[in-house]
Amino acid sequence: RQRLERPQQPRGLRDAGLPQRKEGQRGLLQARVRLKGGAHPGEGRVEVLKASTWGTVCDRKWDLHAASVVCRELGFGSAQAALSGARMGQGMGAIHLSEVRCSGQELSLWKCPHKNITAEDCSHSQDAGVRCNLPYTGAETRIRLSGGRSQHEGRVEVQIGGPGPLRWGLICGDDWGTL
């Protein structure tokens, strides 16, 4: 079995046709923002990393400008929706940010003016979320999950083209992890 050089981005994300990091852009492995609890790629509860601890963002003053900053920071397009009221589920633990006010041009949510949270400010029933516009990659018809108990789990298969009929192949699981 031939071993290739370790990729610059997690192999599973690159091969799955999800957004790629661009030259000079912060890598996915060093992200200080992530989405949790969404049923589809590009949506979920917004969580930010502060002092090695993940925490949520309060939905006070949460708007499409802030949501678009999150989406772009994660390599997606602009935001389709800024979600409030924990519509992507309630987080646990810390709530790091409140009253985030972005112009929409910031490169990171942390660059937006915000209020540091106190215990009285917010609860997890007010966790902010986003639904990002996904760039069309064509991957929607070239990647599938197979053999799982639901439509959201299973073995990742990719359609392989070339001369002759199209076939479905597997992606190597080496270097896969969770975000």
TrEMBL record:
What name does UniProt use for this protein?
Answer: LOXL3 isoform 8
The SRCR domain is annotated at 33-133, 143-179
- Organism from which the protein derives: Pan troglodytes
- Specify the domain of life of the species encoding this protein: Eukaryota
Q: Name one Pfam family in it.
A: SRCR
The keyword Transmembrane helix belongs to this UniProt entry's keyword annotation: no
Keywords (alphabetical) are: Disulfide bond, Signal
Name the GO cellular-component terms: membrane
Q: Where is this region: Disordered?
A: 1-25
Would I find Signal among this entry's keywords? yes
What cystine linkages occur within this chain?
Answer: 58-122, 71-132, 102-112
Signal peptide location in the record?
none
